[in-house]
Amino acid sequence: MLRLSTDIKKCSNCSCLLDNREMERGSLILTRWTDGKTNHSLANISGDIRHDFLVKCPQCLYLVWFNQLQPIESINSFTSVQDPLKHSTAFSIPKFDDYIDELKSGRINVENEQALRKVAWWAGNDARRDREVNIRMLGDEIENLHTLAAMIDVSIVHDRLTKVEIKRELGLFDEAEHLISESFQYKHLERNKLFIQTLIQKQDHHVQAYPFIKFE
């Protein structure tokens, strides 16, 4: 069965049809990692840019902003057409280098830069999730995290925990400990804080899945 809504659009570079069937739209969050990624965001689409996100055309491999493409059709679960997606292909998910290329292109507006840097972080971490052997960060990953950290307003408690995690993953444990010492006000954030604080004390800089599940 199709998800509630699947959008078909035309690639601005090669005119092939691509769709967003790869977007995770389940109702439950079953996995959450310390960098903020969840099973809802497996396509590296941040909630901050849910309606404005970068994808790769599966045919010409061109990077395009899905919301800016020419719409062709929107399919819902009540559509009676047999196999309505047979003429389109699911978009491809960009890799870390793709996000960095887009960030360096000069095409990014200020509103999208922080969210794009966040999903670039997630994409870089994808190779490290649930791995016993740690893969070291590359130079571009480190630079991206330093830039992202500088953009974060720590007066917003959710964002402060994000900055703590960035500092931890960069191995800046003293800075992370200083940021995490204040109250995070909300019960679920305090629980996340305690888990990350334990990792800081162990000087563990690996991205981790939280050992508890919060159904949302």
Tell the overall outline. elongated
Distance between the termini: 23 Å
Strand order of the largest sheet: 5-1-2-6
Structural class: alpha+beta
> How much β-strand is present in the residues?
5-15%
Helices and strands, in order, run as EEEEEEHHHHHH
Rg over alpha carbons: 19 Å
List how many beta strands DSSP finds. 6
Regions with pLDDT < 50 over 5+ consecutive residues?
A: none
- Helix count, DSSP H or I runs of 4 or more residues: 6
Helix content: 25-40%
- Sheet of most strands: 4 strands, mixed
Mean pLDDT: 86
Give an overview of the whole structure.
A hairpin with a 6-residue loop joins strand 1 (5-10) and strand 2 (17-19). The mean pLDDT is 86. The chain starts with a strand and ends in a 15-residue tail after the last helix. The protein has a domain at 5-109. By secondary structure, the chain is an alpha+beta fold. It is built from 6 helices and 6 strands; from the N terminus they run E-E-E-E-E-E-H-H-H-H-H-H. Helix 5 packs antiparallel against helix 6 (187-201). It is elongated and about 55 Å long. It has helices at residues 96-104, 110-125, 139-151, 157-169, 173-180, 187-201; strands spanning 5-10, 17-19, 54-56, 63-65, 70-76, 89-90.
